[in-house]
Amino acid sequence: MVRTLVLGGARSGKSAHAERIAQQNGGEVVYIATAQASDIEMAARIAHHRRGRPSHWTTVEEPLMLADAIARHAAPGTTIIVDCLTLWLSNLMFSDTRSYPEDGSAQLPPLVFEQRAALLEAMRSPVCDVIFVSNEVGLGIMPMGAVTRFFVDEQGRLNQALAAQCDRVMFVAAGLPLMLKDA
Prior knowledge:
The chain is of the alpha/beta class. It has a single domain (3-182), classed as P-loop containing nucleotide triphosphate hydrolases (Rossmann fold, 3-Layer(aba) Sandwich). Helix content is 41%, strand content 22%. A 7-stranded mixed sheet has the order 3-2-4-5-1-6-7, with helices on both faces. The longest helix has 20 residues, at 146-165. The chain is globular. It starts with a strand and ends with a strand.
């Protein structure tokens, strides 16, 4: 089973590229969406993504328990798309009522470590193809706030850990994929 990580910036075409891979695979596609419609703008983004997907694909909304959702829907001949790990990490970081300081270091909720470990463990031996979509957030200017810098660091660590386990890793810019790893 092929594990693929598709990285890129906002509106780079990474989701569309992941969807093309899934269509080329044939078979059933399960789309695990991690976004939550927390405001009007995010609701519009979610609606845009929904309109672009084939209606026969199964959509599962799971903002936190990603490994469990993958396990529930994994089956031979199925391709799972997870879109996206960046929102998933953000959901986990803000899953409790803690506030993050603007200066100094931050303490992550235990759920972040538990769910990250569960996801990495699940990807050791998947029973179907899995395509992950994630933002490469560390390419720009270093953010000023501590919580934002902390998020950029954690996202980079998550991307690295998953890329190490994936068979294929690609970077998408302007809708064009660049293969970084193809085992």
